[in-house]
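Memo to structure team: turn this sequence into structure tokens by end of day. - J.P.
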Amino acid sequence: MKKIINKIKGEKTPFNKNESSDKKDKVRSLKGRLMTVIGAVCVLLFTVTGVVIYSTVSKNFDDIHKYLLNESSMSVSKDADLFFRKYVTIVQQLAHDKNIQNFILSIDDREDILTHPQYDIVRSTLIDTQKANDDVVLSVYFAEADPSYYVDDIDGISDISFDLTTRPYYESITDGSICITEPYVDVSTKNMVITITSPIYVEGEIIGLTGIDITINSLSQVVGEAKLGQGGYYTLLTADNTVVSHIDADNILERVQDIGLSENIVANIASKDNTVIEYTYEGNEFVGNSTEIGSTGWKILSSMPKDEYNLYAKNVVKVITSIYIISILILLVVIFIILNVLTKPINKLTAITNKLSQGELDVDIDVTSDDEIGVLAKSIARLTERLKTYIVYIDECVEVLNNMSEGNLLMEFKNDYTGEFAKLRSALLHVSDTFKETIGRIKESASSINMNAEQVSMGAQTLAQGTTEQASAIEELSAEINEIYTTIANNAEHAENAGIKAMEATKEVERGNSQMRDMLSAMDEISISSNEIGKIIKVIDDIAFQTNILALNAAVEAARAGAAGKGFAVVADEVRNLAGKSAEAAKQTTELIENSINAIAKGTALAGEAGKSLIEIVNKTKETNELINEIAKASAQQTVSVNQIRSGIEQISSVVQQNAATAESSAANSEELSGQVQLLNDLVNKFHIEEEEGLTMGG
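Reply from structure team:
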């Protein structure tokens, strides 16, 4: 009995470490999986957000840079336009001068110029205009095509070879527009010079033009000194796309398409498109655009190195990337700390379940939480209390079954059973009551049968003795006929009584047979109850299996913890050992229950054999009853025919011999009936159904 209890409570069983190691590799940490999933999601979200922000920032920076670059070009263009406007205004003012207009209208021949009374006035006007702007203006003049001449501030009048129609600025007369010529190098000053001319209108008719020759060094200086970032610069182009100002002096007065610019910017300049684009100059990458200078047709080409253009965007992207990386690292650390806090109660519960799997039920569950983990802790606490109760139930049930197997049907339960064990307790009590009732009835029937069998045996012996005496005294029968008549009458009365007793014995045997069938039914109920116990053992086996799984999880967590988890790894191994031994104990308990079922089956077989014996007893009793009835009939016939005895003495002798044989047979049957009754008593006496008999367990 102690061995069975020890096996139920758990003994250590060897565990396949290789199998455990294989299972460890397949189990992943919950914290690791959550860290991986949450970290991956966060990194993905940060990456997507970073890409969106990078694209947005890059586009915004690009738009802002293009806008600023265009505005900067427009600013330089406006400065250049102001330069041109200043000198165009001077030319236009000269064109509106009445003295110059009257002078031109009054000249019919070239020889009249020097003698004209207004010559000195108009020349003085030209000289004063040049002196007022002598830093830029080289010469001031007005001219007419027919006759072809000009008057300036330097030489006074042109020579005879001057032909206005051959000059590029003659278009001011033909087109009536302000003309700004292509630059050229002045012979005397070696400066780049341009000519600005304006038509002279009188009453809506062009009579000539005014013009000034100006150096554009100051304009080139304005454009060249304009700042465009750290390494950017501006290029001044004429209306004919000739380079006037450039960072490389060798490109001055070269055509823009000949200085090494990429085709896209050349096409952009030709189409007068001021869109900011990327282009190359002598293999270097630049960003810029071309901007027209007012209505002059001249242009400003901006050039900023692409690296400098993208520098701020790159710096911002670097800052954002650094912030994102730091944020991701901080977030991962926070997630790791949060997961540690969340999984700490689970680790505590794992340690508690490890102790439970080792059979240590006195554990302190100190996990307090309002979430699902707290509910789990409370559930484990309730499970622990229930396991303690179940072990007590199992111990008591095993003890009761052992007592029943030893024949003690008196059972007393000290515990209040709950759940499925309440059904087990009720079934055991029902079996005990059924057994006690059945065995009690069998005892009563056996006692009654034994008493009747003794009476039958005594009657059969008396009958045999009387028959023998009749056989020996057959010769004296005639003389003692009256006495024989009395004896026969007595025999008839005794035979009738024997028949009644035999009928009663038959009824008692049949009653004993019915009670034997009840006992077989009770044995079947015991078998069903044993099967229910087997199901409960299966539940215990499942608990051991789940404990084994929990132990494996704990072992994996311990393995992940490294050196700090070695102690937990040892505990996990012990838990697995205990789980295996619990399963083995459940298996052995199942075998014991199967052995009990087999023993019950054997008892059922023995009870069946006893039933068959009772049937034989019933049959023999019936035969005895029939014989006794025959004796009663014969005795009655003898009484009726007592007066004929003398004449049928031989017939009486034959009947007496037959009676002797019947009496001997009845005696033998009575002896056999007594033996069967004694066997039944021996079997029934093994069971203890009374309180005083149950004091000693096992009888």
